């Protein structure tokens, strides 16, 4: 398809990358990026690019990836609970300052012949273009003013972004329990002298700390558009002082927020197509905003290049990208629910907590994690088995070993984890174990000597059932078992090691 003129709304990573790829694909096409902000200022700290995204960028545009990689910082990952530390080697992840990433993408866009216009607010309807790419973010005015059928789900937990003036040695997840409740940081280095420092907490803790008051004050009478919640920053730097080495936290429009998950029923309307956060968002704990936007850009440009017309290109783009986005959004939803309920797991040894974290969304199998991180999984298996010897976590039938461990619970002893006594059976098919329906299951479980949670045999339903079992187990202390198909025994095994359930009931599916 021959395009005469393309307008891109939004000068973030997705918009800039789409503009460059469009110009490289069709040098004769006029490509203009319209960004309402100033080129010398940006919101945010660092962003991360995982190995899979880097491979896709390498295939689409190796020159840009080469400069991004050179400007970024690779790091591993740790979980810290007090003095205890579990470390996972994952140096394929690149952290890069958002300012530097934008600078790289701006240079490469202009090098390709893209025109960048800053400081102007434009609407899609006002632009004379064959195609308008709306990459104007989670609060997209284009999406809100068009026929895209958008729905936004708002999370329960609260979080804020801030930064440090030094580079942490690794990415780190570290909870701190205070007189108000638990705050947990997700922090990672992105340059030689900077780190992102994200903090999240539950609503009750947030209110007890008085941050509902500071948030309301900023929202109702903001002293300046860029003002940060300085009261929260000073408190957080005091409770995370050891991790911060006594250094201050840096704000940049830093305010408590609830995560908004965007679902657009349609990604195009007329000559306008949504890209990145304008079309979809996924919780930050999966590290997916920049990834999704840049991967969207690769597919969109390819379809615009090869499709016979605009409508076909838009349809193919959505057909290709929507399944991948839906999968990541589901992983992110599970991850968000795990983090929103994080304080309930503070009793776990740090290695078991790391296994629970890595398996929270269902996309990291236990055997694969054991091969890559035996120094973490080995101790976690010993903790699960009460200190007994175990198989080599990097080899053997790990799932079989997990299922075969004995259990003593409330004076009852079980030879293995698949021998399930007669328990109160509760059928459940929830999306959110921490919903009112989940409350009802917990209430029913309190009146029993043990429960068997059953439900649909699909993998998503089983993963949710394991999360529900964890809540029942932690809140009631009753013996908890989960029923699931034998074909999903690996998921059941990681649920046992992670402390989500006590026992599992394997069922053979009939053809």
From TrEMBL:
The keyword Oxidoreductase applies. InterPro entries: FAD-bd, FAD/NAD-bd_sf, PheA/TfdB_FAD_monoxygenase. Pfam families: FAD_binding_3. GO terms for molecular function: FAD binding; monooxygenase activity. Residues 126-328 form the FAD-binding domain. The keyword Oxidoreductase applies. Keywords: Monooxygenase, NAD, Oxidoreductase. Coiled coil: none annotated. This is Monooxygenase FAD-binding protein.
């Amino acid at each position: 398809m021959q395009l005469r003129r393309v307008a891109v709304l939004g000068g973030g990573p997705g918009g800039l990358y789409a503009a460059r790829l469009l110009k490289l694909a069709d040098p004769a096409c006029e490509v203009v990026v319209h960004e309402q902000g100033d080129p010398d200022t940006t919101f945010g700290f660092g962003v991360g690019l995982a190995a899979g995204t880097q491979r896709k960028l390498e295939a689409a545009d190796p020159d840009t990836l080469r400069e991004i990689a050179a400007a970024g910082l690779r790091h591993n990952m740790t979980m810290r609970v007090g003095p205890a530390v579990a470390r996972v080697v994952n140096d394929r992840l690149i952290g890069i300052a958002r300012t530097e990433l934008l600078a790289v993408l701006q240079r490469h866009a202009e090098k390709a012949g893209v025109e960048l216009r800053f400081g102007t607010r434009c609407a899609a309807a006002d632009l004379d273009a064959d195609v308008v790419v709306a990459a104007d973010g989670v609060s997209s005015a284009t999406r809100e003013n068009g026929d895209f059928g958008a729905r936004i789900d708002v999370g329960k937990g609260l979080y804020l972004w801030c930064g440090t003036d030094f580079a942490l040695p690794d990415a780190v997840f570290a909870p701190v329990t205070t007189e108000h409740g638990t705050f947990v940081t997700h922090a990672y280095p992105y340059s030689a002298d900077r780190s992102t420092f994200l903090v999240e907490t539950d609503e009750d803790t947030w209110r007890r700390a008085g941050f509902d008051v500071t948030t309301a004050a900023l929202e109702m009478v903001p002293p300046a558009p860029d003002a940060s919640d300085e009261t929260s920053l000073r408190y957080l730097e005091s409770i995370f002082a050891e991790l911060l080495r006594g250094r201050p936290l840096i704000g940049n429009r830093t305010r408590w927020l609830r995560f908004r998950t965007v679902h657009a029923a349609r990604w195009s309307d007329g000559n306008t197509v949504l890209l990145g956060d304008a079309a979809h968002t996924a919780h930050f704990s999966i590290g997916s905003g920049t990834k999704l936007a840049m991967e969207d850009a690769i597919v969109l440009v390819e379809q615009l290049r090869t499709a016979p017309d605009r409508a076909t290109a838009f349809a193919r783009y959505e057909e290709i990208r929507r399944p991948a986005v839906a999968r990541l959004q589901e992983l992110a939803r599970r991850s968000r629910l795990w983090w929103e309920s994080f304080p309930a797991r503070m009793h776990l040894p740090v290695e078991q907590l790391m296994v629970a974290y890595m398996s929270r969304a269902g996309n990291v199998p236990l055997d694969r994690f054991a091969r890559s991180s035996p120094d973490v999984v080995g101790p976690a298996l010993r903790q699960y088995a009460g200190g007994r010897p175990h198989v080599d976590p990097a080899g053997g039938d790990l799932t079989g070993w997990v299922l075969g461990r004995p259990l003593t619970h409330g004076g009852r002893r079980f030879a293995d984890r698949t021998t399930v006594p007669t328990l109160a059976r509760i059928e459940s098919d929830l999306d959110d174990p921490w919903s009112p329906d989940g409350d009802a299951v917990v209430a029913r479980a309190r009146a029993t000597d043990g429960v068997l949670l059953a439900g649909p045999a699909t993998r998503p339903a089983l993963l949710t059932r394991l999360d529900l079992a964890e809540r029942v187990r932690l809140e009631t202390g009753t013996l908890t078992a989960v029923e699931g198909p034998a074909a999903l025994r690996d998921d059941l095994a990681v649920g046992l090691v992670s402390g989500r359930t006590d026992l599992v009931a394997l069922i053979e599916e009939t053809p």
